[in-house]
Design goal:
Blueprint (H helix, E strand, L loop, with lengths): L2 H20 L18 H14 L2 H4 L7 H11 L5 H20 L20 H25 L10
Helix pairs in contact: 1-5, 1-6, 2-5, 2-6
Length: 158
Amino acid sequence: MTATEVLVRLIERQQDSFLETLKKVPEDKLDWIPGEGTRSARDQAQEVATILEEFWEIYEKRAMTWDMERWTAYMTSRGQVRSIADLEARLRGISARLIEFIQGLPESELGAETQMPFPGEFLLVDNIHYHVWNMAYHQGQITTILQLLGLGGDQPEA
């Protein structure tokens, strides 16, 4: 497998796994927050489904700009995506766009540096893989919500 094929496979598989877990949350529990400082399943899905589109310049310009005004506007905007169907459509759409971007990229570009407003070294491949990581992280959080609701999450049935 090429690096491109690996990235595409990881994105597609994690996207499907994330959506499968999200769909286990009953509609009336999508906005339930387990405790202070935690987030609902819907809120987490809103992030996963919209964050790449908001910061797409990471891929096109190899740089990201960030400020509180932009973040506040993004938070308001992502809150408008409410239904599971809309969240799924947005996630599948942005994942497809990322896959198309990856497939059109020479593999040598995966090692290109990106300028981020955070400390550390970031390569384009890191930012591409962030989508996979972010879906997996939030899937784990949603699984915890399912477990707290007594719905089992991703635990195998005994």
